[in-house]
UniProtKB/TrEMBL annotation, chain A:
GO terms for molecular function: sarcosine oxidase activity. Gene3D superfamilies: Folate-binding superfamily. Transmembrane segments: none annotated. It comes from the Bacteria. GO terms for biological process: tetrahydrofolate metabolic process. This is Sarcosine oxidase subunit delta. The lineage of its organism: Bacteria, Pseudomonadati, Pseudomonadota, Alphaproteobacteria, Rhodobacterales. It comes from Ruegeria conchae. InterPro entries: SoxD, SoxD_sf. It holds the Pfam family SoxD.
Automatic annotation (TrEMBL), chain B:
Residues 36-79 form the Rhodanese domain. Belongs to the SoxB family. Its cofactor is FAD; FMN. This is Sarcosine oxidase subunit beta. It catalyses: sarcosine + (6S)-5,6,7,8-tetrahydrofolate + O2 = (6R)-5,10-methylene-5,6,7,8-tetrahydrofolate + glycine + H2O2; sarcosine + O2 + H2O = formaldehyde + glycine + H2O2. One of its GO terms (molecular function) is sarcosine oxidase activity.
Length: 109, 414
């Protein structure tokens, strides 16, 4: 079972305590954007076999949204961090680099 | 290819079964093919088969990373039905169901199609309205289904508990000619027929790159070297995104794990397929007597072919309430498959931004039932550039807002 540490309340939460919220760090496109931008924003999710960044909610706990860095191939969790950011913090990136040298995900690496 | 028949069995019995030949050849790849299909699952093999049979394109290779039929074709719960709400879905799934009817004869390979009937249970007021609507839609589409009341459900499924406290059975959508088939045999039968046409099925060969010139596909790089082709079909389910990346475009797909499990074998107790979408569980009894149970998908991206344990618990908990007699069954095996999900839960059968390259994927949780129809439409698309079966499932439907919304119509068990 997937276990993620909630960065807000500090609890190691099991999967049944959490709600998955899909891809993290989406840039939102609304009125005035082009068809391509809106299409990509709505439907083109990252679907990597490897390093992935996601939103999770500690639904049956403190209720807070947070971010997790995870490997979709091994289910290894690299770390969790605050939702109040537009990109993964340096320590998370470093933790991934230590285990997956040369990783990239969207514009991050 | 030697014909399988009762006579052949008798002949071989008399000579100690020394005359059987391998069902398909395992050749080394040639330098060039007219068409290459990546993925030797049901959909890929069916595409190759109909390319050869319907369009005379027989210089074809089917390339498979693992072994033939070892992905989702061998991991599903073998259910065949076509009771979909939307017209394009009903058309392609009903085409498939119709082809399944005499596929054993056509392929000369027993796929054990068993049109035993499929019930989708209505367990909420919302589902009653939804399934009655689907029954009316099916009547207009020429798909034979009917809405039945709880008494008829009990007649068809004596082991069901109609009066469950949380999930009472209020009726169901009944498709009498739905059923099951032997999933491996579908892949094996198509593979044998493809091989007999002279097509090459190349297993243990991973595609590592898609080669292109001037916006047109010219071949693939594989672990067995480069192979040239005029046309390329990508039919790889969970790894569609990875193949698309090699070809230089992206797909609106996410890969998640879907699980199933089977019980120990017991005496015959249920001769129809029962699906309960409210509780994300479905069950049928295999010819060996095992209860075959399918559950829900994980909520997060996953390539592990395992899936989360709590989903099994949720599925089994709900099914035990609906079928109290299974509460003491031991479960024998559990497994997972990686399914590629689109936003509208309908597949993608389409041309791609790379000329000569076609995609057949996004079948999500419900691809097995569609194999013959999918192959039929995909072959038409690859051979002629157009297919009325696949037209609505094109890649640009997301940008144009032409969704084929089965996420509401079909629920999770799809």
């Amino acid at each position: 079972m997937l276990i993620l540490n909630c960065p807000y309340c500090g609890v190691d939460a099991e999967e049944t305590e959490l709600a998955a919220g899909g891809e993290a760090h989406l840039k939102r496109f609304g009125p005035g954007s082009s068809d391509d931008e809106f299409h990509d924003y709505l439907f083109m999710r990252e679907n990597p076999k490897g390093v992935h960044f996601e939103r999770w909610r500690h639904a049956n706990g403190c209720g807070k949204w947070f971010h997790a860095a995870r490997c979709t191939q091994s289910l290894e969790v690299f770390g969790t961090y605050s939702a109040q950011t537009t990109e993964p913090p340096k320590e998370i990136k470093d933790a991934i680099t230590a285990k997956r040298p040369g990783w990239t995900w969207r514009e991050f690496s | 290819m030697k014909h399988y028949s009762a006579f052949a069995v008798a002949r071989e019995a008399l000579r100690y079964h020394t005359g059987w030949e391998r069902a398909w050849r395992s050749p080394e790849p040639k330098k060039r093919y007219d068409a290459i299909i990546v993925g030797a699952g049901g959909h890929g093999l069916a595409t190759a088969y109909y390319l050869g049979k319907n369009y005379g394109i027989q210089n074809v290779a089917v390339i498979e990373k693992g072994w033939l039929g070892g992905g989702n074709t061998g991991r599903n719960t073998t259910i065949i039905r076509s009771n979909y709400l939307q017209d394009p879905s009903a058309a392609i799934y009903e085409k498939a169901r119709g082809l399944y009817e005499d596929l054993s004869q056509e392929l000369n390979y027993n796929i054990m199609f068993s049109p035993r009937g499929v019930i989708m249970l209505a367990q909420t007021q919302h589902e009653i309205r939804g399934y009655q609507r689907t029954a009316h839609a099916n009547a207009l589409q020429g798909v034979q289904t009917e809405w039945i009341g709880p008494e008829r459900v009990k007649e068809l499924v004596p082991i069901i508990n109609l009066e469950g406290p949380r999930y009472p059975v209020l009726g169901g959508l009944w498709q009498e000619r739905g059923g099951t088939a032997r999933h491996d045999a579908v892949a094996w039968g198509y593979a044998r027929a493809c091989s007999a046409m002279g097509m090459d099925i190349i297993q243990q060969c991973e595609v590592t790159g898609v080669r292109q010139e001037n916006g047109r596909v010219v071949g693939v790089d594989t672990t067995k070297g480069a192979i040239d082709c005029d046309k390329l079909g990508i039919v790889v389910a969970g790894h569609s995104g990875q193949l698309a990346e090699m070809a230089g475009f992206r797909l609106p797909l996410e890969a998640v794990a879907l699980q199933a499990l089977v019980s120990e074998p017991i005496k015959p107790c249920m001769d129809v397929v029962v699906m309960a979408n409210t509780v994300h569980g479905y069950m049928s009894q295999s010819d060996k007597g095992e209860m075959v149970i399918g559950g829900g998908t994980d909520a997060y991206n996953n390539f592990t072919q395992r899936g989360s344990f709590h989903h099994i618990e949720e599925t089994v908990r709900a099914l035990v309430e609906t079928f109290p007699m299974i509460s003491r069954l031991k479960m024998l095996r559990q497994w997972g498959g990686i399914v590629d999900m689109t936003g509208d839960r309908s597949p993608i059968l389409s041309k791609t931004p790379l000329q000569g390259c076609f995609i057949n994927g996004g079948w999500g949780t419900g691809g097995f039932k569609a194999i013959p129809g999918s192959g039929w439409g995909m072959a038409q698309l690859m051979a002629t550039g157009h297919s009325s079966l696949t037209e609505a499932f094109s890649l640009d439907r997301f940008k144009e807002g032409r969704f084929i919304d089965e996420s509401v119509a079909a629920g999770v068990a799809h």
